[in-house]
Write a structure and sequence with these properties.
The chain has a single domain, classed as Rossmann fold. Strands 1, 2, 3, 4, 5 and 6 form a six-stranded parallel sheet that branches. It is an alpha/beta fold and 186 residues long.
């Protein structure tokens, strides 16, 4: 007897707000990998979020914050993509993760499977920064074999179709969709 594959939804958060950026192209490569049983969707509205400010933490939440929280809550896993800015992740991605981390005990990120890719000429450890932030906000980070995409080795005009990007995105999505091991969590 065969059963249909279990549905899994991965939400892609991109730390670049520029439409044609390499990071946005990589997000498109991830979306192109949607398949039966594993839907990949792009988070909307990151550019609408105000800078995180506890004075703006209201109940009900600001509409842009509530919308992003709902998107994360409806996903099974998270793929975070960020350009490397000054040896760290982008402010847009960090801001989104800051908003998503609240309220601390009811964050939609708590226990959410997550991994990330950073893109730059040199990572300067931004991949470690991204993993540290994901862990700090309560996500369950999973290991993907590639976490850094070097702009020197990519076709920046066709990044969504670059074999290195396709391989890295495939590895990340496979890691997010794989059965959760009983031991060996990072």
């Amino acid at each position: 007897m065969s059963y249909p594959p279990a549905r899994h939804r991965t939400l892609v958060l991109t730390g670049s707000l520029r439409t044609g950026s390499v990071t946005s192209q990589i997000a498109q490569a991830a979306l192109a990998r949607s398949r039966p049983g594993h839907e990949v969707v792009l988070a909307a509205g990151l550019g609408l979020l105000p800078l995180f400010n506890e004075d703006l933490e209201t109940e009900p939440a600001l509409p842009a914050v509530a919308a992003l929280r709902a998107q994360v809550a409806s996903a099974d896993s998270l793929l975070a993509l960020s350009p490397v800015y000054n040896a760290g992740i982008s402010a847009a991605l960090k801001n989104a993760l800051d908003w998503l981390s609240r309220p601390r005990d009811a964050s939609p990120l708590i226990g959410k499977r997550a991994t990330g890719l950073v893109v730059g000429y040199s990572s300067h450890g931004a991949e470690d920064h991204l993993e540290a932030v994901l862990k700090a906000v309560g996500a369950h980070t999973v290991v993907a074999s590639t976490t850094v995409l070097n702009l020197r080795t990519l076709d920046v005009h066709r990044a969504a179709h670059d074999p290195l990007v396709e391989a890295a995105v495939g590895q990340a999505l496979d890691a997010l969709h794989a059965p959760d091991p009983v031991v060996g969590r990072r």
